[in-house]
Amino acid sequence: MAVDKDFFRGPTLELCRRLLGAELVHGETAGLIVEVEAYIGPGDRAAHSYGGRRTRRTEVMFGPPGHAYVYISHGIHYCFNVVSGEEGNPEAILVRALQPTRGIEIMRKRRRRRDDRELTNGPGKLCQALGITIAHYGWDLTQPPFFIRPGRRPRDEDIACGPRIGIDSAGEARDYPWRFWIKDNPYVSR
DNA sequence: TGTCCGATTGGT
DNA sequence: CCAATCGGACAG
Questions:
Q1: Of A13, A84, A110, A162, which has the fewest Cβ atoms less than 10 A away?
Q2: pLDDT at A170 over 80
Q3: Structure pTM?
Q4: What is the CB neighbour count within 10 angstroms for residue A73?
């Protein structure tokens, strides 16, 4: 059913590719992961854990991989990340978009949009659609009701990568090609 | 397409 | 103080 703990081990950029096509499940709602971004620890100016910042917010990233890092964005939205990398290295992967697979009626109620693509094509949108909040901070993603299920991994030629979104004041890090998405998938953000 | 604003948290 | 891993509304 859910992935094993080992699924989350290994380099963060490799886990990014492994997450594409996997299913993120919360309760009765779920979707295939179609877009992610890596935020890699102390050396990444765009990461909340840049320079080794260790606060109540970033604490979970210092723990073992496979847990949820949820934070509040601009005061009103939630963003969901998967903690990655070795324990002690504060790394995480932001899930930016999903393709709904289950509970789409629930998502429509929560989101109230005309176009179903607007349900989960952004990091704050997908949290609202799946009911993910700050209360899920630190949760273990190998256990129901909140977990990741392995799926069909896309072929490498069906995966695209490029610079991350919304971080234009991060110096060199701005151009790192650490955003990954499934080519031509209609649920990818932007 | 562009711009503006909400309303919270952490860092300087 | 102010920028931030964003989304929605509305002008044009």
A1: A162
A2: no
A3: 0.95
A4: 12
